[in-house]
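Step 1: inspect the first sequence and its tokens.
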Amino acid sequence: MSMDDFIQTLSDEQRAALLKALTGDDFKPEIQSRFQHEEPISEAVDGTIDKETKSKTTAEDFAMHKTNSTLGNNRRREAVKAQANQWTDTGEHKDVSTPDRARTPRNRAAPRKKKVRCHVCGKDFTINASLVYGEYYRCDRCIG
């Protein structure tokens, strides 16, 4: 497809937009309406936006304004000053009561202990069997 074929496929508005993009903002081609009963196409439809609308959208969407008050809060370190505790216990949920029931009995078996000897200092210890791993046990004193 050659460039001439491509330009022929464009509508009048698309041709004007292409011409505008190639030549710059200062060139405003005259666009005729396609139908006799329509008014000529306005600048807003043409793609150009008046300066008032442009500045409003830019300010709303992209501008970030710093205030001087935030700069004043950026100070050096300050000592923490103790203040009186202002919290008071209001005793919420007084309507909720705990029912009187028998306590659950402890059914868990006693932990299994294992007798081990420290391979560094030679002392004997009785420790939880789940903590014993490996062939050579070291006591807490010999580890650190």
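Step 2: inspect the second sequence and its tokens, then contrast the two.
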Amino acid sequence: MPWKLTVRTGPRLERSSYGELDQALDALEGRGRQLANNAAHDPVDVRVRRFEPVQQVAARIELAGPERLLPSIRGGVDVRGDGSIEPFVGRVRRQIVEQRQGESAYQAVQRALTARAQARST
């Protein structure tokens, strides 16, 4: 059951595979923390609007699996330009995962993806 981790940072794309969901979630958190520490974007001015760093997605880290061709479980985190993290599930119809009190964004996406994986296996 391979899990694919895709990291999009600007025009760069990195892919890696993991055998277990826990390994993939650990890699997602490690890469997310690294990118969040390096995220420092300036506001972007276009003629009619200004985009603040919190409105910019500096990097997107997506996890997909366990099927290879058409994964049934998708989710990940967006690293914003100010270094904040926003967890999500889905791909085309992305839904923000609400964080519970005292829960990090990585714990929230882990909770959501683990619940989907368990629901899928029963």
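Step 3: confirm your contrast with the notes below.
The two ends are 16 Å apart (CA to CA). The beta strands are 3-9, 12-18, 44-45, 50-51, 57-65, 73-80, 85-89, 95-96.
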